[in-house]
Specification:
Blueprint (H helix, E strand, L loop, with lengths): L1 H21 L10 H12 L7 E2 L2 E2 L17 H10 L11 H16 L8 E3 L5 E3 L1
Helix pairs in contact: 2-4, 3-4
Length: 131
Amino acid sequence: MKQKIFVSLILLFFAYSMFIYTQSESKSNHATSDVEAGKSIWQQNNCVACHQIYGLGGFLGPDLTNVHSAKLKGPEYIKAFVRNGTGVMPAFDLSETELNQLVSFFEHIDASGKSDPKNFRRNLDGTIELN
């Protein structure tokens, strides 16, 4: 009986994997090269160690999911903080191009939704939606 359950679970796993990987992506989710470069900058500087996106990441700094559209914030605010740092956050020596790419990354994330995971609904296919 245990073997039948195990084999069934394996088959279900592969069937579900095939289903997920054969689904086409929405064109609106495709990132530009600037967004991809900004994501690389985010990863190379290990920003997730201190900051969160969608409530996931470190807790030393704030969640940055919606920093691009937040009141009294935006592209220049992001650039100023990255260039100058704070008492806790170090200053980063990024070129203007790199700063613009990082801002593009934040703009892309911001456009994808709100950051509070308590408001997310998990779907059976592994995706999440805002309640």
